[in-house]
Structure formats: structure tokens, C-alpha cells
Amino acid sequence: MKLLKKMCEIHAPSGEELAMKEFLLNYINDNQINWKVQPTLHHGHGFQDNLILVFGKPRTAIFAHLDSIGFTVKYDNEIVKIGGPVSTEGIVLVGEDSKGKIEGKIIKKKVGMFINFKREIDRGTSLTFKVDFRDTDDFVQSCYMDNRLGVWNSLEVSKTLENGIIVFSSWEEHGGGTAGYLGKFIQEKYGVMQALISDITWVTKGVEHGKGCAVSLRDSGIPRKSYINKVVTIAKESGISYQLEVEDAGGSDGNELQKSNYPWDWCFVGAPEDNVHSPEEKVNKADIQSMVELYKVLMEKL
Amino acid sequence: MKLLKKMCEIHAPSGEELAMKEFLLNYINDNQINWKVQPTLHHGHGFQDNLILVFGKPRTAIFAHLDSIGFTVKYDNEIVKIGGPVSTEGIVLVGEDSKGKIEGKIIKKKVGMFINFKREIDRGTSLTFKVDFRDTDDFVQSCYMDNRLGVWNSLEVSKTLENGIIVFSSWEEHGGGTAGYLGKFIQEKYGVMQALISDITWVTKGVEHGKGCAVSLRDSGIPRKSYINKVVTIAKESGISYQLEVEDAGGSDGNELQKSNYPWDWCFVGAPEDNVHSPEEKVNKADIQSMVELYKVLMEKL
Amino acid sequence: MKLLKKMCEIHAPSGEELAMKEFLLNYINDNQINWKVQPTLHHGHGFQDNLILVFGKPRTAIFAHLDSIGFTVKYDNEIVKIGGPVSTEGIVLVGEDSKGKIEGKIIKKKVGMFINFKREIDRGTSLTFKVDFRDTDDFVQSCYMDNRLGVWNSLEVSKTLENGIIVFSSWEEHGGGTAGYLGKFIQEKYGVMQALISDITWVTKGVEHGKGCAVSLRDSGIPRKSYINKVVTIAKESGISYQLEVEDAGGSDGNELQKSNYPWDWCFVGAPEDNVHSPEEKVNKADIQSMVELYKVLMEKL
Quick one: pLDDT at residue C83? Predict the structure, then answer.
């Protein structure tokens, strides 16, 4: 969980994914020697701050978004949202501008939402939740499980992946995500049209802690049923514990793929969390284990 | 109307268009011998469950969506919407899961909307309205006139079509429709940039039963005026009865084309119906007749 | 300001940009002889009513939308909106249909919004605000500063532009804008991935009249921070007065680029106005001057 903790501490709200990309490039550089297959990397010019790893002869692509929710400083320390973060008074935000480090609590006034800080912060400065990473026997808890855990899962899968693509995408939390053009690149260069969305979902009445990774049958987006059926069949035959999810709200890079001008079969497969989009996102370790195992099987069988 | 009735009875909500595609492939296989021109078919890998028919040297493409509205079963027989169906208590829904056929009425509770059925239904099972097809002298009435009638119109036009494309698309009702990537294929392979949207619209103060097919000047989307003017001029000169529609809500595959990364001129041309998105969709036969005739002329003159 | 006044008087709501395009083609034809570089023009088949100017070896593209907000006539002189115009009772609208010129005031009834005019207007007729152009020492005021001023700015920049692209786009006000496919063309043909959005923004608490052109750090869309930083650094070093804007609402062709299937770095740079989307849009002349100067520097340095 050290790697996960490190990634949770990286400041990378939507539009500022650069630090996450650089962390991953270093990590891959240091660790791929121990991976079964060394991937081809696509990044840099024409890829903004995204990163694509291609292993062997890919048939399926994993999408994991690098960005987190957060806040942007407006005028006189007023703040507005990046994506849909919980914004209860008292939540501690951190960031940095031209004058130095920033740390302060959210306060609400009639005229808007502010960060309580001793000096005026530069316009446009982005703020993220202050990290309090808690690792117990059964749970991991911190802000940004969504989606540093989805990224972490992808890195775990990378260790033994022989054929497949891993896409680290941007802007998923705020809209205007890059899964569209990254998907275009993949379809045109590798002919890959199947996707798994490595992201974190919600604990609900139907999806509970500790019962396994969720395989989402739909959310606000509806994926093609025949593909979903394939995923569920493989999950069932694997013997790995999993839960079937059905929602009519929420979205992911799956929606970006669905809306793009390319034919994508996609399925959201991810561990569920409590306290969504807050500093207290909490995931059961058994579900994380199930997620990694399920991805390994799916990438082999799909 | 036998063919229309058959198609209304096919279970194909957004994401499960496969059955409609297979029905059409069989129908085309059996009937194209009697068509003026035998079309080239595009479907299968890279087309999901969509189907494209290309006749002669096409200048214009007809888009007709295969999917219908419906419901997905969540947990404990709770249901959520696919697209925007009417969901009044008492409406009868049907479907099938791993344990067999399903039929039950919509019931509403404080905690949500449910199907009243004797056993727990598999998560993710899709349900559609139970069909009650009524064919009288002047009207056809059933669920899913929208858009099995738009599909039926396309098949009628196919009989004599010499030059043109017919696109059977998916996910129109729910969002994330495939008109975008199907349009991309058409523009890149055939250079066709003109579209007609073969779909069903609303009876309103300005568009009445029996006064002819509606030519929509706009809805939530605004098509290019100069193209719309061309369509209206051809309609006027044809002597076929038609009505001009202006709305600021509602959408169609036209919006998908408009939002895609390709330059499309599009116009919605379709018969109006009462009781939109309910099991009681009702269309005047004279308007259906006008729709078929208008499409024949438009496909020749555009 | 004569040229600006002329352009404000051209009737070109979303979907009817043709008149603006033709005006620009004539203007360019008459004036490019005096420009430092004569641009290559792209328009016509496959470009709808848009127009692209390519100067030298471009690295950055300016996007300025041609269309305005307005209204469409429905049934019995009821009107519905094109984009998001202010629609206070008494505002005077003008247009033309098959029977002649139209001028009348907005009136509101329980059943809807109407234009008060002596005869029934043709369905689908578009109406725009009646122009009252006011040019004083410090301010220009008229409807359609947004975005005839953004177009005007692009023409000013054209006079001395050596390397760059100028895109005149459509449907920005209503949605379904053409920046997506025009951007596709530019990236594929010229490899240009950097954009500036030449459009008009809002006077707010943080952005005031006369303090210079606004450089927007974000609105409803969030551009890539590293690109924004480049723009701000160039602005700072230029010595030209400018203001930093941060909003969480509002959008522009920047959002269309962000949502397209192409990797775009974009930044909104434009003068602020009072009385947004009304017949009284008011812009400070110093801010217009700053806008032109800033664009000249940015197009050279980016």
C-alpha cells in the first residue's frame, strides 16, 4: 500500500495530470525490468499528459484516469469545484501558488464558498483535499482512492500482463475527458475495440464492502449487453468473488468512449468505496484483491 | 402492417439491438430479390449491432434507430429507466432472465420504482412494454412506433431506392448513440454528408394527425438552414402533404450527427404520434403514407 | 468601428452563418492585398458555412464564432430561443420571411413567449435583436459584440499575422458547434494543436471594464494548466494590460475542442462585456485594444 499512498499524495486535479504522468514514467522505468513483458510507451506530443502502455498483441484496453477532483481559487479566496467533490465546511484543502504553500479549511458564506487562509491566493490556483492515509487490516482509507486505486490496479496487472493496453487518461472527473482521443489512437493503431474501466464505484444497497469487486452492468451509460455478458461469464467461471452493479447515475471513461466517434465495447470493473468524493474514501482490501485478480483473468480471456 | 407488428414485438432496448439487426438481415436476405437495387451491406466487426445498406451511388443517408426505450432491473426488482419511457403505475412490462419469462406491472414506492413479480429477477435484466398492437382503418397504435415505424419506412423506401444509404443505428434513446461513428464511416468511405432522420415525432398544436408527415425545422438541435430550405422546397414541389414542425426540445440521431466531428447537414422527417414514449403510441395511416412518399422523392431529388 | 458595426448588422443566428461567411470572403478579397501575408482559404464543400484562413507555417489557431443568439418563430408567432438570449418583454426583434420584413417586440403570455407582429410569420423564421450601435469615446455598445468583436479582433490580427490559423466557426451559441470538425481538419492537415478562443466574456467582480482583455484560466471547461501558464507568462512579459478570469460556468468553442476526439490545448482570451446576451452588450475600448495587442504577441510567441 506504500505505492498507493504515494500516489494519493500527488497533486493532480483535472487539467494538471502532469505530476501523475511523471511519477508513472519513473515507476515504470524502475520496475518494468521485473515485469513479464516490457510495454511500448506512447506519450508526449499529441498525448497531452496521458500515457499509454502496450503489451504484446493487445485485444483489450484498460482505462484508468489519472486526475482527481478538487477546487480552483477564484477571486478573494473564493473557490469553485473541479468535478464533483464533497465540500462540507471544515474540510482541509492544500495547494501551492507563486507565494508558497497553502493549507486551509473550507468555509461557506452567503456569497459563495471560500478557503480560510491568511493571504490572498493567486487566481487559478488548484487545491486538493489534504491526505490522511489510513491502512488497517481490512480497509484502506484516504481521499483519492478514486482513482489512484484504479491506477494502482493497472500497475499490479502490468506485472504479469502479456497482451493488452493500459491507458492512463485525464479530465475524467470534470468532463471533456481524453478517453475519446486516446481511444481513437488505440483503434486506429492497434485495432483494439474492447475496454475495461479500472475505476472505483459506490457502496450501495446492492454492492457491499468485502463481497468482491463490482462488475457494473450499467450506470448513466449503457454498454453493449453482449459484451457485458462475456465479462460476467468470465467472472463467474473464474471463481473470484465479484458483485453485479446496476445504477442509473454516475459515469466514467466508459461514457467518454461511448460518446466518441468510435465503436467501443466497455465495462466498468472496480472495487466499491464508502464516502465517495470526500477525504474519507474507504475501500475493503478483499475487494481490492478481487479487482486485481479479476483484471488478470479478464485480460487473458477477453 | 404485419411487418411493423412483428418488429414492434422484438425486444431491443438501447444496448441490446442485436435481435433487431438479425431480424433485418433475415428480412433483407428474403426480400431484396424484389428490390430495384440490391444494396451492399456493412455490419459485424467494428459496427457493433448496427447495419448499413448502400444503394448505387449515394448522395444522402437515411438514419433510423433500432433501439427502444425500456427499463433495467436493479436490486430486489427495483427498476431504472433506459431512455425516457412513461412509467405510470400499472403499465405492464415483459422480459426474460436466466430463470424464465417475466411479466409484471410497474409499482411505485417511496424508495423507488419496481416491477411487481413473484420472484427476484436477475440484476441487469432489461424490460420493455408489453405489446398491444392495434390496427384500425385510420390509425396504428402500439408501443415502439418510435422507432419501428422509422425502420419500417426505411424498408419501404428500400424497395425502389436506386442511390442512397440506409443506416440502422443504436442507443438513440439513451444517449451515446452510434450515429456519430456510423456517420464517420459513411463520410470517409462514401463522401456522403447529407442525412434524413427517419424517426417519429410528436402531435402538438402545430402538428396534427392526418395532415401529413412532419418536416422538422428544428428541435433541441438546429440544423443548417440552407439544407432545411432545400428539403422544404422539394416537399412543397412534390405535392405530397406535409407539416412544418418547430420545437425547442426533443432530439434524434440528428443531434448525434451535429455533435460528431464530421460536417453533417441533417433534417428530421417523420410522422407524428400521440402518447409519446408510452405503450399507446398512435400514428395516423395517412401520415405514414405521406412519410414513405416524401422519403422516396427526397432521396431522388436531394 | 465601422467594420464592427457592419458585422453587428448581419443576420446570422446559429445555423444561418452563411451571410457572415460571405461578408468575410468579400472583406478578405478586398483587403488582403494590404496584409503582410496572404492566407490560404478553406471553405465550401465539407466546411458548411465555416471559413479557415491559414497564414505561413502555423503553430496556433484562433477560433472565432460567426453565429449569434436569436429566436425561431414557432406557431402563431410564438418564439423559442436560439442559444441563451435575454428575452425581456419589449425587446425588439427583426427578421424576414417569404412575405417580407418583420419587426416586433417580445411579449409574454401564460402559454409562451411571442413576437408582437401584425401577421402570422412563416414557421421556422429566425429573428435577431434589432441593432442599436453606440460608439462613444470609451465604449462600444450593441447587440452581438459577442461575437462580432471576436471576429473583428481576428481580422485585425490578420493584417500582420505571419504564421497562424484563423477559424471562423458556427453553432457556438446553441451547441453542436463546428469547432470539433474544423479542429480535426487543422490537426490532420497542419498538425496544429494549440488554440486561442477569440470571444467575449463577462464583466464580474474579478474582471472589470478598462483593466484589459481577460485571459480565462477556466470556465465550465478546464484547459490544460501547462498551456494556460504559457499564455499567462507571455501576457505578463508583454507589458500589455490583461486580467485573469476564473469562472465555473459559461463555455466557448474551447469546450467543443475539449470534447472533440482530438488533443487540444486551448485558452479563452477576450474582452469582457456588460449586459451579456442582450441588445445592450457593452465593451470598453481599452479592453478591445488590449485584446488585439495580446493576440498579436501570443500568435508570435506561442
Answer: 98
pLDDT grade for B103, boundaries at 50, 70 and 90: very high
**Bridge pairing between strands C265-270 and C194-197:** parallel
- pLDDT per residue as tens, chain C (302 positions): 899 999 999 999 999 999 999 999 999 999 999 999 999 999 999 999 999 999 999 999 999 999 999 999 999 999 999 999 999 999 999 999 999 999 999 999 999 999 999 999 999 999 999 999 999 999 999 999 999 999 999 999 999 999 999 999 999 999 999 999 999 999 999 999 999 999 999 999 999 999 999 999 999 999 999 999 999 999 999 999 999 999 999 999 999 999 999 999 999 999 999 999 999 999 999 999 999 999 999 999 99
pLDDT at A196: 98
Report how far residue A196's alpha carbon sits from residue A215's, in angstroms, rounded to the nearest whole number. Answer: 10
Q: Could you tell me the CA-to-CA distances from C107 to C73, C90, C127, C256 in Å, in that order?
A: 13, 7, 14, 34
From chain A, pick out residues whose CB is under 8 angstroms from the CB of B184: 261
Nearest CA in chain C to B206: C75
- Specify the residue for cell string 448505387: B56
* Residues of A in Cβ contact (< 8 Å) with B126: 225
Alpha-helix residue ranges (DSSP H) falling in chain C: 2-8, 18-31, 145-158, 179-190, 225-238, 253-259, 285-301
Could you tell me if C198 lies within 8 Å of chain B, comparing CB atoms? no
pLDDT of residue B115: 98
Q: A259 vs chain B: nearest CA distance in angstroms?
A: 5
The pLDDT tens digits of the residues spanning B29-48 come to 999 999 999 999 999 999 99
Is A98 in the C-facing interface, judged by CB distances under 8 Å? no
Average pLDDT of the residues of chain A = 98
- Residue A67: CB atoms within 10 A of its CB come to 27
Which residues in chain B have their CB less than 8 angstroms from residue C82's CB?
Answer: 222
Report the residue of chain A nearest C254, measured CA to CA.
Answer: A176
* Average pLDDT score over residue span A169-184: 97
pLDDT of residue C192: 98
Angstroms from A18 CA to nearest CA on chain B: 27
Does the beta carbon of A125 lie under 8 angstroms from any beta carbon of chain C?
no
Grid cell listed for C16? 444561418
**A145-158 vs A285-301: helix axis angle to the nearest 10?**
50
Touching partners of C (3+ C-beta pairs < 8 Å): A, B
- A223/B15 Cβ within 8 A: yes
The whole-number pLDDT of residue B205 equals 95
CB atoms within 10 A of CB A275: 15
**Inter-chain residue contact A171 with C225, CB threshold 8 Å:** no
Are B246 and C195 in contact by the 8 Å Cβ rule? The answer is no
How far from B41 is each of A191, B292, C64, CA to CA, in Å?
21, 22, 41
Interface test with B, best of A227, A246, A252, A262 (most B CBs within 10 A): A246
Q: Could you tell me if A262 lies within 8 Å of chain B, comparing CB atoms?
A: yes
Which three cell numbers mark C157? 490580427
3-state secondary structure chain A: CHHHHHHHCCCCECCCCHHHHHHHHHHHHHHHHHCCCCCEEECCCCCCCCEEEEECCCCEEEEEECCECEEEECCCCEEEEECCCCCCCCCEEEEEECCEEEEEEEEEECCEEEEECCCCCCCCCEEEECCCCEECCCEEECCCHHHHHHHHHHHHHHCCCCCEEEEEECCCCCCCCCHHHHHHHHHHHHCCCEEEECCCEECCCCCCCCCCEEEEEECCCCCCHHHHHHHHHHHHHHCCCEEEEECCCCCCHHHHHHHCCCCCEEEEEECEEECCCCCCCEEEHHHHHHHHHHHHHHHHHC
pLDDT of the residue at A198? 98
